[in-house]
Specification:
alpha/beta; Arc Repressor Mutant, subunit A; 5-stranded mixed β-sheet; 3-stranded antiparallel β-sheet; 10 strands; 16% strand
């Protein structure tokens, strides 16, 4: 069992529900000490300028066709003087953006960064004891390191795109909602196919290219928009996920 030996209060900052569940389980089990806080916000989605409940609601309705419950732009405040371990998977868009937003706005003086790999254990798998081993990989981050993250956040804010996602280079990039349309159109043939089959084909191609993607709900909503513009058509006047689609014949 690996225990943290610091006498000051230890806070484990996590940036996604999956990481929060895994670290919280390890604390409950005794393989980690301290408390755990979830710092979310989905900062990889939606506008960064003039970001509030009203603008986010409008953005989700436009790009996903629905408005999530409990939209919030507030984040928890960690008490001063705490020893902070920040658990971040830098290869996931949501965790990394939530992390650099937190660093940029919480006046953090320093923390220990724990880079969590994709293969990290999770609580659902029942092997949450093992995540304590990642404490050995913790890297101290000082003011000079923090300024780098703030600079990265400022660039993304200036771009103010619809999405901030891990691109093919392995780095965060800004994307407009229309960015994926060419790949969608190229994947749709002139033969009628169930829309879930087409969606799966598109997502598999993006995964093979290591391009993060907003998800299937976004994809189906783009299908609907492309139908409305006459680029593709659906066989029945029902929800796009329940029918066949094809490219509009020339």
């Amino acid at each position: 069992m690996i225990q943290n030996k610091h006498h000051q209060h230890v806070v484990h900052a996590t940036f996604s529900k999956r990481s929060f569940d895994a670290v919280s389980s390890a604390i409950s089990n005794g393989s980690l000490t301290g408390s755990c806080v979830l710092i979310g916000g989905d900062w990889h989605l939606g506008p960064l300028k003039e970001r509030n409940t009203k603008t986010l609601s409008a953005w989700f309705a436009e790009n996903f066709g629905y408005v999530p419950e409990n939209l919030s732009t507030n984040i928890p405040v960690i008490s001063k003087g705490a020893k902070i371990f920040a658990w971040v998977n830098p290869s996931t868009s949501d965790e990394y953006l939530n992390f650099i937003h937190w660093v940029s706005f919480q006046a953090v003086q320093g923390f220990s960064l724990i880079p969590v790999p994709e293969s990290a254990p999770d609580s659902a798998a029942g092997n949450f004891r093992d995540i304590a081993i990642f404490l050995d990989d913790a890297v101290e981050k000082k003011a000079s390191d923090i300024s780098h993250y703030i600079g990265e956040w400022d660039v993304l804010t200036d771009e103010n795109a619809d999405f901030r996602l891990i691109g093919r280079t392995g780095k965060i990039q800004s994307f407009p909602s229309s960015h994926f349309d060419k790949g969608i159109i190229d994947a749709i043939t002139e033969q009628w196919e169930p829309s879930p089959i087409v969606a799966l084909r598109i997502m598999e191609k993006l995964a093979s290219e290591k391009q993060a993607f907003p998800g299937d709900i976004f994809l189906y909503h783009r299908f609907e928009k492309l139908c409305s513009s006459g680029i593709i058509e659906k066989q029945s006047d029902v929800g796009i996920a329940q029918t066949l689609i094809r490219a509009t014949p020339l």
